[in-house]
Amino acid sequence: MNNTRKIRENERELIIFLLTKLNLNLADYPINEDVFEYEGGKMGSISLGNNPDDYDGDLIQVEYIDTDEIPVVITLTKDKNNQLLDLDFWKTDFSKLIVYPSVNEIVILENNQ
Predict the structure, then answer these.
(1) What is the DSSP-derived secondary structure letter of residue 48?
(2) Which of 2, 22, 49, 102 is deepest in the core (most CB within 10 A)?
(3) CB 55 within 8 A of CB 101
(4) The CA-based dihedral angle spanning residues 7, 31, 52, 103, taken in that order and rounded to the nearest 10 degrees
(5) What is the pLDDT along the chain (113 residues), one digit of tens a residue?
């Protein structure tokens, strides 16, 4: 895992925003300090330090429009131990994320609530 690094403040802020939108207690979903970048950070996806084989579902899915007008679907997932697993970014054309979203640019997808 040579792409392990400290979580960035904008990533932490986004995770807290998403958990708050779900009315989840932040103490029940601690955010790991060390994260692993998928694809070398190309799209912005990070593992929050738990085993990806323990995936147990999506907590919330939101959308963001990158500066090149390409939609980005962002999903916060949990594991079988009810801990945060991934903050997953999927840019619909598979290109590199240009600008990391701020929380005021996020659109909550209807199927979340």
Answers:
(1) -
(2) 49
(3) no
(4) -70
(5) 456 899 999 999 999 999 999 999 999 999 999 999 888 777 889 999 777 788 999 999 999 999 999 999 999 999 999 899 999 999 999 999 999 999 999 998 766 54
